Amino acid sequence: MKITDCQILFSATLSTTRITAPENTHIIRIAELVLEMARAYESDGITFYLSGDPVNALACFHYGFGWLHFGLSSGLFAASATPVCPFQEPHEHLQAVYSSKLEEKTFRYANLLDTALSSVKCAPDPATTSYGFAKRIHCIAHVYAGRGNDYLKSGSLEDALACFSYGHGWLDAGVTAGFFLIIAERDLFTV
Fold this sequence. Notes:
By secondary structure, the chain is mainly α. It is built from 6 helices and 4 strands, in the order H-E-H-H-E-H-E-H-H-E. The strands form 2 sheets. Strands 1-2 form a two-stranded antiparallel sheet.
């Protein structure tokens, strides 16, 4: 998938997304924050791409997709367009001029996601439905960390970076929404 196609899919879904949380509740503020973060990563990704930085653009769009998919899965908002998966096909290989930046960022993001996963614990009581959703968020982040590591082994750094960014987006959104307690490395999260 080309980075521009990823941005188009992301922007198209964002443009049809609306908050479903009830007005005058604490949940609406969470929904607003999650949607605001997804839109911020869309904007940052576009800025990076237009300034000639496809590596950071790729990371931004997938991090934003993580926030967006978290919001849709949690019921904080809905999209009239069918939510899309940015992993339907392999990502385009970036030109050789970006190789060192791509390698550095991909390995750094692999470490960041691993550290983030070990820096949180589920906040809700295990007997609650919120606990089940927290476990699901953690599982999604863990699965994308694993996929990213598989892509690293096969040499597909673009796909690896996309996976690490997406998984961290999910986890960061979950922390922001209160599903996790931060037990270490607070600086890895938006809160």
